[in-house]
Each structure stands twice: as C-alpha cells, then as structure tokens.
Design goal:
The protein is of the alpha+beta class and 650 residues long. The protein has 20 helices and 25 strands. The structure holds adenosine-5'-diphosphate and magnesium ion. Residues 49, 52-53, 113, 118 line the site of magnesium ion.
Length: 650
Amino acid sequence: MPTEGTSTEPVEATGDAGPRRPIQKLSPLLVNQIAAGEVIERPASVVKELVENALDAGATRIRVELEAGGLKLVRITDDGSGIPPDELPMALEPHATSKITEAEDLDRVGTLGFRGEAVASIASIARMRIRSRAAGSDECWEIASEGGSTSDARPASGPPGTTFEVRDLFFNTPARRKFLKTPQTERGRCLDWLRDLALAHPAVGFTMLSEGRSVLELPPGQGPRTRAASILGKELEGELLEVSADEHDDSRGIGLWGLVGTPSVARATAKAQHVILNGRVIRDRVIQHAMREAYRGLIEPGRHPTAVLLLEMPPGAVDVNVHPAKLEVRFRDGSLVYAVVHRAIRDALRAADLTPAFGGEGTLPRFLSPAEVLPPPTERVAPGKAVDAAAFAREVRELAIQPAKDGKVDLDTVRRALEEKATALEARLTAAEEQAPGVAHEVVRTDAGDASLPTPKRADRVLQVHNSYLLTQDSEGVVIIDQHALHERVMFERLLERVGEQGTLESQSLLTPVVVEATSGQMAAAEKLGDLCAQIGLTLRELGPRSLGIEAFPTFLFERKVDPSEFVRDVLARAEEDGFAPDAEEAMREVLDMMACKAAVKAGDRMSDGELEELLTLRERYERASRCPHGRPTAVRLTIEQLERLFGRR
Ligand code: ADP
Ligand code: MG
C-alpha cells in the first residue's frame, strides 16, 4: 500500500532500546492521532461519532452514505442546528466543544458528546470536509482538512444543517488499516451502530446508503416500540415481551422500558442485545449479568437473550466519562440498576407462558387416524406366533460381525450364510401363514407397498407414564397413547369381530345367580333387551317384581374381572334413561361399547410388561380396521419436526 502524507505511526511506538532521545512536546497532529487511536477504530466509529454530533445538534433526519464500507467515504448529512462559519475552524481543533464549559457540567452531561475530541481525531487520520449552514442563516460555508492542515473556510451552498465528509480513513497511518476488515464487514459494523443509535432515538429519521443504494430507511417520528419493531425485524414479532419499570416505584428514579425475546429467540452471541442509557448506546456488565440471571434456567448457558432496553436515569446517577468512546459507564448504584433490570425481565418472563404447549400454530400435534399409524393390512404377515423377527435380526447381525479369518472377510461365506437365513425365514413365514389365526404375539411386516410412504416402525419400547399414558415412538416421532382409550378401542373391535363371526359371545353360567335390584322402569326395559342380552351372553331372569337374577355372564367380562351386578345395573340404567338405539346393530355396538369401557384398563392402572406388549399387539391388529368409531383419539403424535421447533433447533 502506498503511504501518503505524514507517516507518523502512533500505534507502532515500540520499546526499541536505541539511544535515548531528548524530551520533546508531541506535535498537535501526533497528539490527535494518538487520541484517534482511542476513539476511531474503524469506519463504524466515524459513523457513531458524527451521528452523535448530529443528534446533539438536534437533527430530525440524518443520512449516512458509505463507499467501500466507509473505507473510502463516510458522508453524514443532518438538518440540525449547523455550525456558524466563524466556528468552523474551531470544530476541527482538539479539546474544542460547544457542549460543556466547566467541570460541574461533567456531572450533568445532557449531550452525547462533551470531550471535544472526535472531529479533531478524525481530521488527523483522514481527509475531511465540513459544510454547514447554521439555523436561521442563508449562508452555507465549507472547510476542508487533510492530515492536520486545514484550509480557510469558503462559501458554499446547501440546505440548513451540516454535512461531514470523511474520505480515505487512515490514509496517513497505514498500520491502522491492517486492523480493518473487508468493506462488507465494515459496512455491516456501520449499519449495526446506526441501528443502535436509531433505537436510542426513535423520533429521528435515519437513512443509510451504501454505494448509492439504500440499506436502512427509518422515518422520523417513530415511538420506541415501532422503532424497535422495525429494527428487530418481522421474524421476531410475536416473540417479544414488553418489560418496564416505573421510575416512581422503588426503582428510585430509574426508568426502564424495553422488549425482550422469548427464550426461543436467544442467540449464540450478545449482538442482539441493545442497551441504551439516556439515549446513549452502552455495553454494561452489570446489565448483561442482570439479563443473564433473569433468563437463568430458561436458556442454555452460553446463549444470549435478545433484548432492547431503554434506561433513563438522572445524569447524576451515572458517570459517562470513563471510556473514550463512552461505551462504558459507571453507575453510582450498580446493584440498584441490576435489581431494576433483573426484576423487570423476570416479571415479564413469568407473566408469559413459556412452556411450549400443544397448541399454537405449528406446534399442535395432529390426532392420528389409525390408518396413519399403521400400514394397510396387505403390508403385513400377521398370523401365527412362529416368527421372531428380533431373533432373526440378531442372527444376521452376528453373522455380520463374525471375526474375519486371517484378517480377511470372505464375502462368499457371508453371502451364503445370509442366503441360508433368508430361506429359513421364508419357510417360517409360510408355515406361520398356514397356521390357524390366533393372537399374534410377534408381528412381522414386509416393507412392500407404497415406497413413498415411510413405513412406521413397530414400537420396540414402551413406557407407561403416570399409570395412564403410554409413550412410544414410530418413524415420525413420539407417540403418546391414552391407555384406557386404546384398550377400550381394541377390545370393542375385538368384541365386534367376535359377534360378527359367531353371532353371539361366549357365556359363563353362574352357579348361584347374582341378584340385582331394579326399578319398575328398569324391569320393563330389561324385557325389551332380551335379544341383545342373549347375543352378548347375558342371561337375566325375573326373580320378583323389583329384582333380577343374573344366570349367565359374558366370559369376556368375567375374565376381565368385571363385577356382574355393577355391569347389569349400568345396562339397566342406560336402558331406562337414554334407551339403546332402535336399530339392532347400532344397539349392539352401544352395548359392546359399554362392555369394552368396563373391561378396559383405567387411567391410573399399572400395567405389566406383558399387558403393555399385548395392548400394542392388539393395537396393531385391531386399530387399523377401526376408522375412529368413537371420534376420540387414542393417540397423539409429536413429530420430530415439532420437537425440533419446540426446542429451537429450527
Ligand atoms: P463534542 O461532540 O465532544 O463536542 P466533537 O469533536 O465531536 O466534540 O465536535 C466538536 C464540536 O463541533 C461540537 O461541540 C459541535 O459544536 C460541533 N459539531 C460537530 N458536529 C456537528 C453537527 N453535525 N452539527 C452541529 N455542530 C456540530
Ligand atoms: Mg462529538
């Protein structure tokens, strides 16, 4: 890179142990360049300092233009108070400011700037031009400076307000240029700063142009909420919670308003945190810590909440003169600031329901129709108990991991062994098919059928939760089963199947009839139920005007340990009150439904491993056939996609 102009190198003051030189006063240029080292790191610092000056001048619209990410040009135009022509040279002088005049002013700084350093610093390391027309004046004047030498002010033309042009940053301090990144990165940093300043000053309009193209456009006159929403972006809408602390509470003069993100929009960096104190963008450890603590347990350690916090406090409560770029501040009462921020955010998080729930767009699990859970019947070979798929899989795996002889795998041997296994399996499947249908304890399914549909895997593990729900998985995600609803469903299907096949259900005679008291209405109803009772294997005899004897009871209910008198009382009550459907087939379904409900495991019943296994087997066998006769779901599925969304992986 060619070096131009003065090549003084303030940052390369090395500890070279050469012969000692006499003490000399540093040249004003060098002094300014050293100062610039502290405040002007990169184009974004120029943007920050000059936009702050425009804000201090009361601008309502500020335009920032960049070329090459600000490396070539930063031009800032405002409609603020302007600088009278006679003061223009002073603006370029170090330690020259219109904002404070005495030490006491430092205790009540109401402007963003006060050190009188920025313009002089920038002028020492860049080519600068200032054009300004003071408010109420018709005259516009211009002054230029390059590497510390300033031209005389001369008349120009332009609207009220001020334009600063900063070209070729660090042209005379090449060592500083090495720390700069690509124009694109530098442009991004300028934009970040402008966004932060815009958040801090919602009433001011901001425009940023890069290479002549608009990259940010914020109209003047916005409120804090609208401004924050336009800066944080649409994606975050609905993920932001409002926080506030009233300065009249016990927050003793500290006012706070802001928007914080739900835990799901926490980020890997703290870049999405914007903290503004009295219109000044700051980075503060106390506040960061308060935020982190407020989110403790809600976001993973190492992630950072999204937040815009606008704090107001009396100027006397904070010292802003501790950092050259005034990024850091010192609070008189840090623990109070901590408490106010922490409490406000914590309250907002508490008030919001942050538990990801089944509900809301995109997270609601669909109720599964049985056909969705299971493949169509043609896809499986169900009957018999002969085929143990798990055992077969084990055998094949053992083959695969058999140690190779002499370190060599004989592929032919493996192939032959696999072929043998396949033949054996085929034989067993055929045998199984020929067997009389019975309750399948092990089900083998071929993967034929529509290849575009993922074949759900049979659950290999099931967990009973709170003695009420069964948790299992299929190829799409987690399936949660209502144990009672499912058991009732499969038993209903089983009973219906039996009645369809045999016309009646098996019955068990009672050695001594069980006596049931009945109302006269129930006695009448019982008479009409004769056929239905006979079909399900229930025999009732009239023992007196108000009593019935149960002489035979359905075997199925017996085995399920259903109390005969209780069941009969329920049937009679139902017959008397609502009545069974006039249609015989429908009435049969209704009574089978009652039987299934009575016989099913209840919510709260512990199920043994065998019962769990049996229920899942029955589910495979029966539920496919039933297209929701009751309408109530027996299972819900939470897909992997939904889980990913709930846990913020998407
Ligand atoms: P400080 O902001 O600390 O006063 P600066 O070096 O940033 O110091 O600016 C020096 C002075 O130049 C300011 O005090 C102000 O009077 C004047 N000035 C700078 N920029 C503007 C502007 N955009 N509009 C009006 N006056 C400005
Ligand atoms: Mg300033």
